[in-house]
Design goal:
Blueprint (H helix, E strand, L loop, with lengths): L1 H26 L10 H27 L4 H24 L3 H7 L7 H11 L5 H25 L11 E4 L3 E4 L3 H18 L5 H15 L2 H18 L2 H25 L2 H18 L6 H19 L16 H5 L8 H32 L1
Antiparallel strand pairs: 1-2
Helix pairs in contact: 1-6, 2-5, 3-4, 3-14, 6-7, 6-8, 7-8, 7-9, 12-14
Length: 367
């Protein structure tokens, strides 16, 4: 009897949390570029499992006549990498299989549908899934902080695990959306329930973002997201309360930073000032901003060439990727222009459909 209780305890407190943690660690591709290969193998295994389970359930649903609207969104998302690989083959003569394999991360989209299946079949409860997800995000951020603070990235300079830029130097290619999620989640918990213990993960997330990620567009979007939540959900009394204490904390932190390392403040004033030149039309000598303008021009020219289905995605293993054809060019650097260059109008619409319908469904559930 004691053995049965011990097995049950181990399953609920150790085995299942570990499995779900590995699931989220791999789906966020946190350590896939670590040059030991094992995480990439596990990632492909997760892709294979979630794809098989999801496609099987979709086909069985269609046979039984119980398909749903979400499947109609997943179908074009599933087909897009195949079309994209064909476009790259036609435009850049990249082997079809290489273009398809280079987009293997796209098939992790089935992970979301797999979670829905797991909830429907009671493989996991919604409360436990939420707990596993949030705790996994915190652990993943700790892993990212450990590498960024204690492990010199130049040790991996010959691998895809790190990347060099003039603004940030050598830095790890970690998923910034993990930290963005933690910042937004912690801030919402603090605003909604006054649970100030979440100031710790919030502070760690903000510090990590400002020091190691330094993505201007994401910082802006995080602030806008939190601002919208604040305006829609915080009453007037709490607004004054949070404005007062928030101002005290922010100015105190700025004062500490100015005392310890004033260059950080001047750095952000410079990079945001340089970014504003894109709107004002002024000139700038900052390499990063000028390269974005150059990359944007390449993306727009390529979009005009193939407006509907795009130019396809070129693997970095094929003639140096896009940079091998255009000089310095990373489609992800120029946002929606990069999407239009790679996927065209139709492909970009397919990518944005889930976000559009998520907003629509969220409004229905809140009514």
């Amino acid at each position: 009897m004691e053995a049965v209780r011990l097995i049950g305890y181990s399953r609920s407190k150790l085995i299942l949390p570990t499995i779900w943690f590995m699931f989220f660690l791999l789906t966020f591709r946190t350590l896939d570029r670590l040059p030991i290969g094992i995480f990439e193998i596990f990632f492909l295994l997760v892709v294979a499992i979630v794809s098989f389970v999801s496609i099987r359930e979709m086909v069985l649903g269609w046979i039984k006549g119980t398909g749903n609207f979400l499947q109609l969104i997943l179908l074009p998302l599933f087909l897009l990498p195949f079309i994209n690989a064909w476009q790259a083959n036609q435009e850049f003569l990249q082997p079809y299989w290489m273009g398809l394999f280079a987009q293997r991360q796209q098939f992790i989209m089935f992970a979301g549908y797999f979670i829905i299946i797991a909830l429907k079949k009671n493989w996991v409860s919604i409360d436990n899934l939420t707990k596993y997800f949030i705790k996994s995000l915190f652990v993943i951020m700790i892993i990212m902080l450990f590498f960024s603070v204690f492990v010199d990235p130049t040790k991996f300079s010959e691998t895809e695990f790190v990347r060099f830029s003039l603004n940030k130097g050598w830095h790890y290619e970690f998923p910034s959306d993990v930290v963005a999620n933690i910042i937004i989640y912690a801030m919402i918990i603090i605003l909604s329930s006054n649970n100030f213990k979440y100031l710790i993960p919030l502070g760690l997330g903000v510090i990590y973002f400002l020091i190691y990620i330094q993505d201007r567009s994401q910082i802006l979007m995080i602030c806008i997201t939190i601002g919208i939540y604040f305006l829609r959900n915080v009453n007037l009394t709490k607004t004054f309360y949070f404005i007062i204490w928030g101002s005290i904390i922010i100015f105190s932190l700025i004062g500490i930073v100015l005392f310890i390392n004033p260059e950080i403040i001047s750095h952000y004033i410079t990079i945001f000032g340089n970014a504003s030149t894109i709107v004002t039309g002024e000139s700038t000598t900052e390499y990063s901003t000028n390269m974005r303008l150059s990359e944007g021009a390449i993306a727009i020219k390529g979009f005009y060439k193939h407006p509907w289905l795009g130019n396809g995605f070129v693997s970095s293993q094929f003639k140096g990727g896009f940079s091998g054809f255009f000089g310095y060019f990373y489609a992800a650097d120029v946002g929606i222009f990069g999407n239009l260059f790679v996927y065209g109008i139709l492909g970009t619409l397919v990518f944005y459909l889930p976000f559009i319908f998520a907003v629509k469904w969220a409004r229905k559930t809140s009514e």
